[in-house]
Amino acid sequence: MSKLRTLLLSLAILAIASTSQAEDLFFYGSVRGAAAFASSTLDAYQEEVGEGGVDTGYEVGVSAGVQFIEYIRWDILDYSYIGGVTGDESSTVPTSAGLSVVFDGSIHSLETSFRFGDFRPSTRFHPYLSVGVGGARTNLGINGVTDSYWGLSTGVGAGLEFDISKHFSIGLVYRFRYIAFDTDFPAMSIDVPGEIQPYKLQSAEANLQMHTVGLAILFR
Fold it and tell me: Where are the beta strands (DSSP E) in 70-167?
């Protein structure tokens, strides 16, 4: 009889744990809007050759994800459109003189990211930190020739959600992104004073550093 009670007690504990995990596991979607504050740098020959500002823009985005436990959420797919980000960079060093890169103002970003925070249903405020990685595409004008480029996007962020109801939350979100666009273009000869042969430059890296601050709505 004691063995039967032990077995029933073990099954009850397992059922309670399974129910708790099922409540923690759910899928969600979110939409957001934010202001984007960006700057850029230009690299050639593995050194920084230009630095400048980029116009303030905006971001709109959507994501779909899953919560595993009360402290981890995974944004499986996160898409952002960033507009109004325009600016131009020109080299300031002799070995890449004449190199110029122009951002045309729009970026498409597709990422995956994790949120680490307090998502317990017993509290209505949920602070969290986030980290993500993905790809971004934009058009860059290099020495007067515009083409489409993909770049690696990495980022970190933070946020604070507030539960309006069991299925609806609003919150503040901050994100910092670093996007590196590797560019290729026809070789350009650069005459450097004191050098016999001109340099041949045919690739460079245009980096974008961007802070976004905005509002998000989450549905679950």
Answer: 72-90, 100-117, 125-142, 145-165
